[in-house]
Amino acid sequence: MRLFQTSQKTLPASIVVSILLVMLLSMALSCQKESNQTTRLKPYIIELPNSFPRLEIPDDNQPYMERIALGRKLYYDSTLSNDGRACASCHIQAQGFTKSSQNVMPVLHHANLAWKNLYMWDGSQSGSLEELMYFEVTEFFNTNLSKFNSHPEYPALFKEAYNSSTITGEDLAKALAQFVRTLISANSKYDQVMSGQATFTELEAKGHAIFTGERGSCYHCHIPPLFTDNRVHNIGLDSTYEIPANQGYFHSTGDSSHLGHMRTANLRNIGLRSSFMHDGRFNDLKQVLEHYSNGVKQSPSLDPVMIKSNGSAKLHFTTEEIEALEAFLKTLTDSTFISNPELSQA
Amino acid sequence: MRQFLTFFLLCGLVFSCSKDETALSEPQGRISIDFRHFAGTDSLLIGKVYYPNAAGNEYRVSYLKYFISGLCLYKNGRKIWQTKTPPISINAKYQDCLQAAFEQVPVGSYDSLSFAFGIVPEYNYHGGFEISNDDYDMYWPINLGGGYHFMKFEGHWRDGDEFGTFAFHVGAKENLIIHGFKLPLDVQEAQSTNIIMTMNTHEWFENPYLFDLSKENGYTMGNQGQMNNLVLNGQHVFKAKLQDF
How much is the ipTM here? Predict the structure, then answer.
């Protein structure tokens, strides 16, 4: 240390400057995770909402404004598909990025996907958002890449955002993941109450207490503030599992103890939805709550958490308790999220 | 001189990018604990095999995750060192990579160690440490005191024609279990001292409290009496030894 200090005093300014330059250069080389090309991009900081877990973003796809804008353009663009559909044809912002339906598998809504590591109703996809988007593009949409490479705008946009000369499936996936990661819903009445900016009505407060206490023990799986636990569970919708669509996570593991296991639904914006569960079997929230109250069916793969300390899986809610839970669930509607112009078609 | 200085600066930079930035004032080593899980003498297989417990039920484990925290080292009955590493979660599903590593352990010899099964109070509140997506499911509700579950041990049981489930959940500061082991530990500079910690899941069902899943419900959430029984049984679940090469 002493050597450094005494020597520095005697060094001419030009040498000090060149040393500093080398320093800066080597810093850029050794610490930067992506190529120099990103230095031209505008960084974007994703703010972590209160009490959310750590946000994990791959080193090679750090957020920048240009990339998010590109992902947003793709999300609303039917060029991705071969039949005129865009992601937004089914994932509609005003409905909480889902689309109302009845008695079929509901379109999974998009909110806070950045904090998931298990995807689809049956948990059949896992990994990063980038990996999931790669699946969406290559398998679900079977995107024709030549349409992108000969497109009047995309080649320049991808060159700018990712320095890619040829647009690949990975590039599309990375850009889509950038946009989807910004679909953050954390400004519902529930969030405002938690941060002291609003208060629950008496009924909502009662529902909140049931939800987060042992009376309902909903929190065990729908853990606030994400309202999911990123795990799969069998909540006793059926007692036998011959129908493949009801087998759930069993498809991924072949393990009979996973029969009927579905990923814990994220209840954000649940009040906007019109059909519920992996097959859309319920058409209003009261029916869902009736299920937890009296409808849970026993089977060898029923989730351990469904049998409460009195030995029963039935919670026997009163009419008032059901109303309270419903009122509470509706406080998860985030009206700024579904109308935020930054998330709509540019 | 100039070249030397540049080299010197570059070295400094390389180090400044790495994670351990504390100045190494005293020589330090590392302790790593490998967690292994057995049901009796069999390696625990999650979701597959039914194992007999002391009450004569058979149980199959679908989930086993817990936190450990607050590792301390002792010599002659005196606490010499306590880790600053935040709680570490152990999920028995990941059989082969269940290692808890503790860095910056002062070099020296110690004769015993202890750790908390669960989360020591200084970390046990929401936001008390950075929780990963994977461990998000360990949340413990605010109205039960906040913080995180110390353990989720879940599964199914059968006994003759009867079958059912158990969900042994434990949390809250009164249920923290401190495990202590006499082990001669010789921590050397820049070396890792490896310990193998084996959990026998049978122990959760016996000694002193015989858990008969066919007679009583194994859902412990909100039931301090049952959690206390688990805390008693939990005193004996681990065995520790040094890894020999």
Answer: 0.80
